[in-house]
Structure formats: structure tokens, C-alpha cells
Amino acid sequence: MIFVFFLILLMLVGAVAASIFRDLISAVIAAALVSLAAAILFYFLQAPDVAMAEAAIGAALTTAIFIIAIRRTKRYEE
Amino acid sequence: MRRTVTILLLVIVALGISLSLAKIPFGVPKSKVGKHYINEGVKETGATNIVTSVVVNYRGFDTLGEVTVLFIAAIGLGAVLAASGREKMRKTEPASLVLYTGCRILFPLILVFGTYIFIHGHLTPGGGFQGGAIIASGFLLIYLGCRERRISRVAFNLAESLGGLVFVIIGLLGLAFGGYFLLNFLPKGTANTLFSAGIIPIIYIAIGFKVGSELAGIIDNLIEES
After folding, report:
1. Closest approach of chain B CAs to the CA of A66, in angstroms?
2. Would A50 be classed as within a structural domain?
3. So what's the ipTM on this one?
4. Which of B27, B61, B184, B198 gives a 20 to 30 Å CA spacing to A6?
5. Tally of structural domains, chain A
């Protein structure tokens, strides 16, 4: 139970960090942290199917696509 | 003035949503159809994973639509990137030995794991979409670690088209044999064995190939451009 609350806290911290970071790569990594914590949380909520999709798509593929897009544009937000 | 009106509107909307949500009992099973899936799902479809029996059997047509949406998104991305004109590949420095060797060892293991996930979709958690995404993340690893290796686009397109074709043909066969689209016309076998649940494993293998090649194709398109 405490671990679930820790995960939710981690997700909140990651989401806030993703929105306030000026460095977009750091923001994407923070968003990936939210996805990863959400995947573990889905597993604890007995939804392993959703957890698998979230871990593979949310944490891995989306992060990679964002990073590729940021490489093509600007890294820092002004 | 505008800010006050906005806050007022937000408060009204929040009040409305919370009042209407408060009337719904929480944690009590309400829908009869959900109970039916849980109690009769294994008997009717032969798949021990209830999620799979809903996704592929009871709501198979929705899954066909979902696969089509992904297909159109991949085609749209390819078209936009092709219209913007392909630049020459920038010179990239080769990956270090540790990354290169790690990728080469991990890539087949990830492929086998993804394949396991979608072949056993009717028995254990997971299925075509999850397995396909895992396979695509394996290809992502190859693109990061061994960038001089290229996977042929022809193979991707072939796997994608064959996956979609098998899905539609199985659905049409159900129409021909039993009178409605995506009917489970194959024998269901004994539950909880690999060769059971009729058309569900075949469809999930087709979806796995399709989703895997589509997502890997999206990454391929993007990386060629950057």
C-alpha cells in the first residue's frame, strides 16, 4: 500500500517536473518516469495487459520519438 | 473580469461533474454484460485471458478499426516525411563497443519475448498490441546501437500488409461459414492450452506482426530523417 502511494507521488513529481523544465530532453525523461510509474501502478491494480502496453509504448517508444523530434528542433525552451 | 468569469465557469463545471459522479455507486458491479464476460467468457471463446476474449472475440470489429487507425497514422507520417523531402543522412559517430555488443545480444531476446507475448495472448496477459510494441522497441535498440544496419522497408511493408490481410480474410471466412463477420469458426479445443480458442491466436499473431512492423516503420522513418 505504501509502495502504491510512493508510485503516485513519483508520478506527480514527474508530471510537475516535465511541465517546468526548460531543457526539453529532461522534460521528456520526466514524462517517461510518469509512464514507467503508471505501468508499475497498473500492474499493482491487477491490469497487466495495460501495464505491458504502457511500459512498451509510453515509456520506450514515445520517449524515443520525442527525443528524435527534439534533435530536429530546439533543445531549450525560452 | 474575464478571469472571474473563467473561474466561475470552471467551478460550475466541476460542481456539475462531481454531483453527477457522486450518484454512481463505486466498486459495485453494475453492468450485466461485464458479469457475462467474466462468467461465460472461457466457455464461449476458449480464451482464458478475459481481456483477450473481449478484445478479439466479443469486440473484434472494434479491434479491426483500431488497427486501421494505427495503419492510417503510420501512412500519414510516412507521407508527410516523404513530402518534406529526404535529406542525406548526417554522418553519425559509431556506437561504443559496449553498446554495440549489448544491442546485438539483447535484440534476439527481445524479439523472442515479443513473439511469446503475442502467441500466448489468449492464455497469459498481453497480446498483439503489447507484443508488437515490444518488438518495435527491439528495433529501436538496433537503430540506437548499430546505426549502420538497415532493415529493409520491403520486409516491413510485407509483414504489415500480410497482417492486415490475414485479419480481414479470417473475418470474411467467418462471414462465409457462419453468417457474421469475425465468427469464431475454428474448434475451440481445451481451454488453457496453446492450440485453443479457435481464431483468437491467429488474429493476435497477425496483429502482432502488423503493429510491430508499423511502429518499427514509424521509428525507421523518423530516424532516417534526423
Report:
1. 10
2. yes
3. 0.83
4. B27
5. 1
Residue A25 lies in a domain: yes
Q: Given this model, what pLDDT does residue A14 score?
A: 92
pLDDT one-digit tens code per residue, A16-28: 999 998 889 999 9
Letter string b/e over residues A17-52, b meaning 16 or more CB atoms within 10 A of that residue's CB: bbeebeebeebbbbbbbbbbbbbbbbbeeebbbbbb
A60-63, Cβ contacts within 8 angstroms, sequence gap of 24 or more:
A60/B133, A60/B137, A60/B140, A61/B133, A61/B136, A61/B137, A61/B140, A61/B215, A61/B219, A62/A31, A62/A32, A62/A35, A63/A28, A63/A29, A63/A31, A63/A32, A63/A35
Angle in degrees, CA B164, B152, B222, rounded to 5: 85
Q: What is the pLDDT of residue B78?
A: 82
A78 lies in some domain:
no
Shortest Cα distance, chain B CAs vs residue A1, angstroms: 18
Q: What is the pLDDT of residues B125-143, one digit of tens each?
A: 888 889 999 999 988 888 8
- Asked if B103 and B142 touch (Cβ cutoff 8 Å), the reply is yes
Residue A65 CA to residue A43 CA, distance in Å, equals 25
* pLDDT confidence of residue B183: 79
Best of A50, A52, A63 to disrupt the B interface by mutation (most B CBs within 10 Å)?
A52
Per the prediction, chain A carries an average pLDDT of: 89
Smallest Cβ distance to A56: which of B125, B134, B144? B134
Question: Cell 497469459 maps to which residue?
Answer: B124
B219 to A71: CB separation less than 8 angstroms, yes or no? no
A48: in domain: yes
The range of the structural domain enclosing residue A10 comes to 2-72
Residues B160-185: tens digit of each pLDDT: 888 888 888 888 888 888 778 877 77
